[in-house]
Structure to design on (281 residues):
């Protein structure tokens, strides 16, 4: 695999956390789509990974891969492979489609017989679909969590952990519409001739398109089989499903990336998988 063309960043740290958000460790090289803290490198990971070949002993990303379509996801894993040293570990965390599908079927079967299962169904159908089809920040999951005590339901806390417990309603940005309005005002009376469809519909299409390309929605989902195949097809080996607590890395839990300081799992709805870059091609 060859290096992509970009300005490479040097790193003396041996662990790389990609798409770190607000969960990062200063002992790691931390990269996010925008700066989220001291030392976090802002970089668009859709353009590749800005480090030289064979740089890191471990590459980690959590709930990042599902935001790429299948073609881009393979390129992203290939980039992870490239920056790993021979014998290095790739740890991938994604929403677990198998777990979600199993809970969906169980809650569907019980929804007509039990209020408890009916409430579980309300949530799991959102968890299955809303993150892929939503057109506004947070989608219907945010609306549901914002209704009274919904986010304190034991089932939702078991599924989403700290994210549900600490939920805050996302802001609904109107940026694309406002930018377009400003531009249109300078066009005078010819504006309706220039627009390919009625103004309101054009605004809506622009706003939805802008949102769906900003990285929030899920482009694909994975189970242990499909993720294993993806990792193997990118040249990795020793692919194994993990828990939040175990890893090829002996001191994994000391970094509190998949677990919190109290030992609770940060994203309980996750599939955890690791693989190793072979020592020889």
């Amino acid at each position: 695999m060859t290096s992509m063309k970009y300005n490479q960043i040097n790193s003396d740290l041996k662990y790389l956390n990609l798409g770190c958000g607000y969960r990062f460790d200063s002992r790691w090289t931390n990269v996010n789509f925008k700066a989220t803290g001291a030392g976090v490198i802002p970089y668009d990971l859709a353009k590749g990974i800005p480090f030289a070949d064979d740089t890191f002993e471990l590459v980690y990303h959590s709930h990042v891969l599902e935001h790429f379509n299948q073609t881009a996801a393979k390129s992203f894993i290939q980039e992870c492979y490239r920056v790993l040293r021979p014998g290095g570990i790739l740890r991938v965390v994604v929403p677990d489609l198998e777990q979600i599908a199993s809970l969906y079927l169980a809650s569907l079967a019980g929804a007509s017989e039990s209020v408890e299962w009916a409430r579980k169904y309300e949530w799991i159908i959102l968890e299955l679909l809303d993150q892929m089809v939503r057109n506004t920040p947070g989608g219907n999951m945010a609306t549901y969590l914002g209704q009274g005590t919904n986010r304190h339901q034991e089932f939702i806390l078991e599924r989403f952990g700290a994210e549900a417990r600490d939920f805050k309603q996302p802001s609904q940005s109107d940026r694309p519409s406002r930018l377009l309005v400003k531009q249109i005002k300078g066009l005078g009376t010819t504006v309706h001739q220039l627009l390919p469809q009625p103004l309101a519909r054009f605004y809506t299409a622009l706003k939805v398109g802008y949102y769906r390309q900003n990285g929030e929605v899920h482009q694909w989902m994975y189970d242990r089989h499909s993720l294993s195949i993806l990792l193997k097809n990118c040249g990795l080996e020793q692919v194994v499903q993990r828990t939040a607590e175990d890893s090829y890395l002996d001191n994994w839990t000391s970094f509190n990336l998949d677990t919190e300081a109290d030992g609770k799992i940060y994203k309980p709805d996750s599939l955890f998988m690791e693989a190793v870059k072979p020592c020889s091609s």
